[in-house]
Amino acid sequence: MDGLTRVCFLKKQTRVCFLALLLTVSTVANAGNQKEEAIADSVRLALAKLVADPRPPKPTFDKIEERIKYLHWLGEMSDRLKRRIPDKQTRIEFLETVWYEAKRAGLDTGMVLGLMQVESGFKKYAVSIVGARGFMQVMPFWSRVVGDGDPKKLFQMQTNLRYGCSILRMYIDMEGGNLFLALGRYNGSRGRAEYPNAVLANWKNWEFKA
């Protein structure tokens, strides 16, 4: 192989690798297209208040038994998540935030983790083909509807989880507690079974029995 042929071959290989990388990135996030729909002013204002709360995700407990249960959960989930988030400090901070935001929204932590496994594979900077962002694949329009208008903040861990959990809670309430329909609505596929079934299946990976 002469010098020019070798250069052309290497350039071709580089292009192939780059295209493969793009395909890999584009498939990291499996979010559907959350719909921007009309919501009552009271709901919008309540949601805006929730996402604007500046308190850090640090839990408090009235009883020592509750704290012990939480610490057991934290340790067990950290072990399960180690392969996906190798850095221990990052993993613990992530799980602390998941627990805080899920409980704050009245959601099961296992369900929230299962949703993130489906949506982003626990990738902080995941972006879907329709533009949904972060761990919980929140669409940028939400930052305008209930936030400060800065969609870049959806890549911040607590902001993303707070938006995601609050939006899912809103959908559950809108659907009268029907989790199947609420999950479909979150994904932009209301009434179809694929997405809710995937979340419910992955929920089992994160169940915790004290």
Automatic annotation (TrEMBL):
Identify the SUPFAM superfamilies for this entry. Lysozyme-like (SSF53955)
Organism domain of life:
Bacteria
A Pfam family annotated for this UniProt entry: SLT
**Span of domain Transglycosylase SLT:** 101-192
- Asked if the keyword Signal belongs to this entry, the reply reads yes
Keyword list (alphabetical) reads: Signal
Signal sequence annotation: 1-31
InterPro entries membership: Lysozyme-like_dom_sf (IPR023346), Transglycosylase_SLT_dom_1 (IPR008258)
Q: Which family does it belong to?
A: Belongs to the transglycosylase Slt family.
- Name of the protein described by the UniProt record: Lytic transglycosylase domain-containing protein
Task: Give the originating organism.
Answer: Undibacterium flavidum
Give the source lineage, highest ranks first: Bacteria, Pseudomonadati, Pseudomonadota, Betaproteobacteria, Burkholderiales
